[in-house]
Amino acid sequence: MELRDGCLPDALSAFVGKVPKVKPWVTLSTPVPVERVRGVGLYYEEEGHGIPVLFLHGAWASARFFEAQIEDFSQDHQAIALDFRGHGRSEPAASGHTVDAYARDVREFLDRLDLDEVVLVGWSLGALVAWSFVEQHGTQNVLGVVNVDMEPAPAPWAKSKHGRYSPQILQRIHQQVQDDHWRIVNDSIDQLLKHPPGDATRRMMFDETTRCPPTVKSSILLDATMQDHRGTLATLDVPMLVCAGADEAWRSVQAVQEAADLAPDARFVLFEESGHCPMLEEPERFNNAVRAFVDEIA
């Protein structure tokens, strides 16, 4: 069943209640922008001029989670938000759902748009993709990196003192994704945030997250959990800003801060009123922190 923007089947009213229709994506381009990258049509938003800032979303999410950033940064930067394959409005793709493959998609995407000296802003999975990008392609075209609430090694078997994603947890999430897709999406919304979201935000998060098929959800979750980028961070040769939510439910602040501790040139900012989504929960403070970082390294 296809879900349109801001519209859900009546059967889902028990999950999201009676809420208003989500406002349209404020910067939506016409025609819909899609770039074919490695055989897959990738949806993206691009607004403004100046230093290019590429926003990379988290697992199961989409570029629309960065609506407040696109609207703000496009005033004085070239703001771009990309949907990974199988996410949001990009084509689903039967294969290629790994962190490294997403990073290769980003590399070709930047080449096709002729973007250089880019700031990579990766939230959660997006941070892993940004680090994989650096690992595979170096930092020749990267001005800096922003890590939004992600630890460098999520799994405890990677000899990580912070990793929490055990095989048992992975199996449970996989079963829930396959057996009761809509329910796990709905339940995850409150786990992502410190405070219950407003109706419009909840609707947006539900709409966007259900666009990612269960097969893609399980695939990318497994691969993301297997990542270990501590070595990459230890040799990172561009500046990095690390943003952590103080009320994160799935990882500790110390786990996220480890990324800053490892990198030679890093800054750390704690968002006291945020869980896993500072860009949604504290958008003004988040935008100011990222803008100050970009202006500093430009």
Would you mind describing this structure in some detail?
With 298 residues, the protein is α/β, with parallel strands linked by helices. It has one domain (10-297): Alpha/Beta hydrolase fold, catalytic domain (Rossmann fold). The protein has twelve helices and eight strands. The chain has an eight-stranded mixed β-sheet, with helices on both faces. β3 (52-56), α2 (67-73) and β4 (78-82) form a beta-alpha-beta unit. α5 packs across α6, α5 (167-179) runs antiparallel to α8 (214-225) and α6 (181-192) packs across α7 (199-210). The longest helix is centred in the last third of the chain and has 15 residues, at 283-297. The radius of gyration is 18 Å and the shape is globular. The relative contact order is 0.15. Residues 1-31 have low confidence and may be disordered.
